[in-house]
Amino acid sequence: MTSFSSDSCSFQNQLHQTNQPLDATFLLFLIVLGKILLNILPLGMRRKNSCQNVMECFCVSLAFVDFLFLVNISIISYFRDFVLLGIRFTKYHICLFAQIISFTYGFLHYPVFLVSCIDYCLNFSKLTELSSKCQKVFYFLAVILIWISVLAYVLGEPGIYQSLKAQTISYQCPVHVSIQSYCLSLPTMIILFMAFITSWSEVITLAQAIQITSYMNEPILYFPSSSLPSYIVNSKRILLPKLIVCFLGTWLPLVLLQVFILLLKVQIPAYIELNIPWLYFVNSFLIATICWFNRHKLYLRNTSLPIDPFVNWKCCFIPLTMHNFGQIESLCQ
């Protein structure tokens, strides 16, 4: 069990100590409020509004949990000292909730990534044929199971319990910094860098050749029509540059931010680090990886690709021309 000291990431390091509860609580309130606003932005910008995969359902659940956390902070800050269902709540419960949320969020990266990967592999391989309603119920239950399992581990793990108990007695409020996000972010950046170096000339040539326009209220990329004959994507030389251009064309700002965080070794509390923009970024990277490993199966006329709320991968693979929009419309839905 990794020990978490109070100098790792605490309210004390965030300008205030817990002997100034109002200031620390107000700072936490502003941080969580800012995160909720950050969550709302991608949820409103996504192309699809229905939960059609595990990652989508988890993002909605994360936004809901963040909202409940903000409501708890607001209620306890307003009443300060009150009894509910026989339990006395004081300002110190704000710190306790923040610690539990941080530990829980810190252990969610791996299970969400793993379950999403399994979900995409099964859907891409068409090993499971479920109706839309059954799929949504299954995703809902899977997300609930993830939350319950991680929360049970956090509350039942002796090391975490002793850490929470000791910090409550000492009136300090250190906040957990997750190693899981670092272990996901670093390999992602390395893979992106290696992929770009491998095909940098093709990426630059492709980026100079494509054109961007709007069709059916969606941005469409015009790739050279000679690059993908017969709508079949099965060449490493052809597919990799397109994946890089499509991915970086959407997520380049977040890629640069991740590089900045990794280089400076910035420690971000887990309750901030697990956010919806980061999850959608991981989601797009995961879909691109699945497409890469299944490149010989990408027959675009009959293959159902995983749905990405921000990148229409199928349209990115199709060589668009001005006279085949009618044919494209059925493929890009």
Automatic annotation (TrEMBL):
Keywords: Membrane, Receptor, Transmembrane, Transmembrane helix. The chain crosses the membrane at residues 24-45, 57-79, 91-116, 137-155, 175-197, 243-264, 276-293. It comes from the Eukaryota. GO terms for cellular component: plasma membrane; receptor complex. InterPro entries: GPR160. This is Probable G-protein coupled receptor 160. It comes from Heterocephalus glaber. The lineage of its organism: Eukaryota, Metazoa, Chordata, Craniata, Vertebrata. The gene is LOC101703334.
